[in-house]
Design brief:
By secondary structure, the chain is mainly alpha-helical. It has helices at 6-11, 15-19, 28-45, 49-63, 71-79, 83-96. The longest helix is centred in the middle third of the chain and has 18 residues, at 28-45.
Length: 100
Amino acid sequence: TSVMLGRGLVAAPALIDRILGEGKAVDKARLRAFHDRVYSEYEVMLSGEVPLLYKMKEFWNNAAVMFTNHEKYAKKIRKVQTLKNYEQAVNALFSDQQLI
């Protein structure tokens, strides 16, 4: 049996735990690990910086709302043009803001 979770999983990374009855809350460490896994998997699958940036910007369209004061960081992530700037923006979000 297959289940497609897509954006729901990005917006609520603990969704699978809830479905399985484990009820673990998502914290910044788990969300960061989830982000890093998505990033690395896309990096392998996609060819080049632009497609990877596009996919990761899409990720943050759904995930940014989990953080306090996320608007400024989400805007910065949307505007980045290089992976280096993307990584800096994501690092700033994780270090400066808390999960709601």
